[in-house]
Amino acid sequence: MNKINIIIADTQYLITESLKIFLDKDEKFNLIEISNSYSQLIHTLDNNSISLLITDIATFDYPKIHSLEEIKNNYPNLKILVLTNQLIKSDFNELNLIGIKNIIYKTIDETELSIAIKTTLIGKKYYSDEVFELLLEEEVKTNNIKGTAQLTVTENEIVKLIAEGLTTKEIAAEKHISFHTVMTHRKNIFRKLNVNSSSELILYAIKSGWIDNIEYFI
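The chain above was modelled as a monomer; its predicted structure follows.
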């Protein structure tokens, strides 16, 4: 059986030792090297047929931001699994742009690590839960901006008053506008946000993070 040659490029001792122990337990894997420097990594890649590179872009001494992209281009058969302690959206975008779509946090357990490696080796994308949470947070922020941008200042104020439990008549009195004007605003808000009732509107506002501490009105 042909073994799968792997390189680890990371400078955190506990991480590299843990990975070594994990890989040594599986007969399919052959850990060629734990690289301590970029020059050592390139030398090993040049002189061996490597299937998988496991690396941390933050702790390893890549000389420039596009070094990983150069590695990917120079060794097209090499699969790359990125380890990280933390990830920001710009890092994710940079990795995604160069085609690296296998990213895991160092907090994952043995089972998930095994799945991540196997998934990476067959050329499918894999993100740990923390990466998905980052993407979800960014998506919510984007949706919040888009949603609030659709509403006028007055409409936003009326959404908050509806969430506080005020009736249309009470909102009209609060805003010193007519009942009819409030009804017009309500219709516009419902149309813009694609909701059909006050309860749907309140749930939409809560999920979007526009309003807080109103649970007792639901």
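Residues 185 and 191 are 10 Å apart (CA to CA).
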